[in-house]
Write a structure and sequence with these properties.
- The chain has helices spanning about 5-15, 100-105, 190-195, and strands at about 1-5, 20, 35, 40-45, 60-65, 70-75, 80-90, 95-100, 110, 115-120, 125-130, 140, 145-155.
- It has 3 helices and 13 strands, in the order βαβββββββαβββββα.
- Strands 2, 4, 5, 7, 9 and 11 form a 6-stranded antiparallel β-sheet that branches. Strands 1, 3, 8, 10 and 13 form a 5-stranded antiparallel β-sheet that branches.
- By secondary structure, it is mainly beta.
- The chain is about 10% helix and about 35% strand.
Length: about 200
């Protein structure tokens, strides 16, 4: 895989190979594209359950929409799902990686805990996993640059790009922060899995 530089990122966006909506050329960095924070969040309200089973649908989030000019206040040790303002569409031969902005990391704001990989063929808004590990609250302003997306060129197009149907692409076309859809996976059969 080869990472894309600024000039190549601009060329691929202008040619429509990578689609960023809305696109602001000023957000192109030397080897990535800055992504802005949307005004929609999913706040976890897990006090009503004792445990979460990933194989069962759990209603443990509540949507929050921030009004224009207001900030979302992320309290110490609070975890929320957020979303990029930009909708991203990748072709079958390019993958993306989301990383937090280093300036926000220096304020103890973690932008994603595990979900930084964007498959070739993905289209949608990118869900961000925000965690405040600072001892005080952090204000999150819609429209602020919150993450950066780097691109890598594969050695050829993926045979089954994300969203192609056969893979059960659970988050294709997502708009706004999207809660876990792990419950759509098939639970493994222990008798088969651990058979001797």
């Amino acid at each position: 895989m080869t990472g894309l530089r600024d000039a190549t990122i601009r060329q691929k966006i202008e040619a429509g190979d990578i689609v960023i909506e809305p696109y602001d050329p000023a957000l192109v960095q030397p080897a990535s594209l800055d992504l802005r924070l949307d005004n929609q969040f999913l706040r976890f309200e897990s006090h009503s359950v004792d445990a979460v089973d990933p194989y069962e649908r759990a209603d443990i989030t509540r949507p929050v929409t921030v009004s224009p000019g207001d900030a979302f206040v992320l309290h110490p040790n609070q975890f929320v799902l957020a979303s990029t303002f930009e909708c991203v569409t990748l072709p079958a031969d390019i993958l993306g990686r989301v990383e937090g902005k280093s300036s926000l990391g220096r304020l103890a704001l973690l932008v994603h805990s595990t979900a930084g990989f964007i498959d070739p063929g993905f289209t949608g808004h990118i869900t961000l996993e925000l965690l405040n590990v600072l001892g005080v609250s952090v204000k999150l302003w819609p429209g602020m640059t919150v993450a950066q997306l780097s691109f890598s060129h594969l050695d050829g197009p993926a045979e089954q790009p994300y969203g192609g149907g056969q893979l059960g692409s659970k988050y294709s076309g997502q708009r706004g922060p999207t809660a876990s859809r792990y419950y759509r996976n098939r639970r493994p059969d222990p008798a088969t899995l651990f058979a001797s």
